[in-house]
Design brief:
By secondary structure, the chain is an alpha+beta fold. Helices cover 24% and strands 38% of the residues. It contains one helix and eleven strands. The strands form three sheets. A five-stranded antiparallel β-sheet has the order 1-11-5-4-3.
Length: 133
């Protein structure tokens, strides 16, 4: 009887550590993605036509790659934490994706609803200008 209790207790103690490790690994991945870029002033909205692609950074947020080479990083304010197996489904009114929009998550394998996210500010990361010698 004591062994199952000990196993459960150790699992509960280890859970926050594992979650912190996942977040730290995701922060490192985001740092790698934006490496060599400067962070700009956050904006409320981005034009849908300017988005080339999007990438989920698990436990952190979404990186939108823009046609002009800028990366727009969105750390959702609330909702389910997205992972790589999620498909982002966005329904907007108009031609812009804004901080008040809700993104629905669909599991890539089962094609079933897996949660939703409430977008926050979009933080631009632009390439540093090259130095001319």
């Amino acid at each position: 009887m004591r062994l199952p209790i000990l196993i459960l207790a150790s699992a509960l103690i280890a859970s926050p550590v594992i979650a912190q490790d996942r977040v730290a690994a995701s922060e490192a991945e985001l740092a790698r993605i934006v490496e060599g870029r400067t962070m700009g002033k956050p904006v409320d909205c981005i034009n849908l036509r300017d988005i080339r692609s999007s990438e989920i950074v698990p436990n952190i947020g979404i990186v939108y790659r823009m046609n002009n080479g800028t990366l727009m990083v969105n750390r959702p304010a609330g909702g389910t934490i997205a992972d790589r197996d999620d498909i982002l489904v966005t329904r907007t009114i108009g031609t812009r994706l804004c901080r008040i929009d809700i993104v629905t998550l669909v599991d890539r394998n089962s094609q079933m609803f897996s949660g939703s996210l409430s977008l926050d500010d979009f933080v631009p990361y632009s390439r540093l200008p090259r130095k001319v010698n």
